[in-house]
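Listing S7. Sequence submitted for prediction.
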Amino acid sequence: MGATASGKTRLACELARRHAIDLVSVDSALVYRGMDIGTAKPDAATLARFPHRLVDIREPEQAYSAADFRADAGIELGRIAQGGRTALLVGGTGLYFRALERGLSELPQGDTEIRMRLAGEAERHGKAHMHERLARLDPQAAARLNANDSQRVQRALEVYELSGAPISVLQGGRRDRLPYRILKLALMPRDRSSLHERIAERFDLMLEQGFVDELRRLRNRTGWSADLPAMRAVGYRQGWGYLDGSVGLEDFRLASIHATRQLAKRQMTWLRSEVDARIFDSEGENVAEKVGNAVRIFLDD
């Protein structure tokens, strides 16, 4: 686990080179085909040498949830175990890690008709109206969700219509935990300024590699819109305004770098809550050797 740009992929590939390990991506953006440059997806040569499961498994127009990830990852983990190998999960999407380890509540499957009706209601009356409606039905969920988080507000209303119960109650139910022995390893820099510099350097490299062209190709796809779940990925969301002409290239660049740094901050805050994780300084000396030793001891145990 680790913050964005902390060197997770490089280290994971090194561990896979040394041990009988199969890599499984834990990244909500890497699941999407065609979103390569802006997500810092490992290049084709790296993926050929060190395959990552759960990369490029959805089109950008398709939704992908933590529940989808848990189901897909569970299948892959079973296959890896049956092959007598060890799974190394690598990524920065904390919600996916938590869903996989601790399980998810049993919520009803989505209903397209209800979802479209709620989306139409939100378009006619606004986000505040939908949030107020949720507050009447499920005050606990409304207190937790921001009115601007329209997707989750509408999902909570959908769950209530389908089940007759508040989502806050259903989410408090029993959860199945992951039936494997786990070693949690986290990369986190002691000096945040160095991570900030690397984030800026990486985004500038993305621009050189053709990130804007990638954005244009996605924008021209049938069914592409700013409301797609894939558009929550940092850089892509900010790029929409640039393609619209509402902001210039430098403003797009600065907004994307800022958003990525904020993402890293949230990731590190979440990592600190994982009290059973072994945290390594991503900028420290011999970090690959230190993490490698922890993995070796775990595998030999």
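Caption to Listing S7: primary sequence and predicted structure tokens for the chain studied. The two ends are 22 Å apart (CA to CA). Residues 13 and 49 are 9 Å apart (CA to CA).
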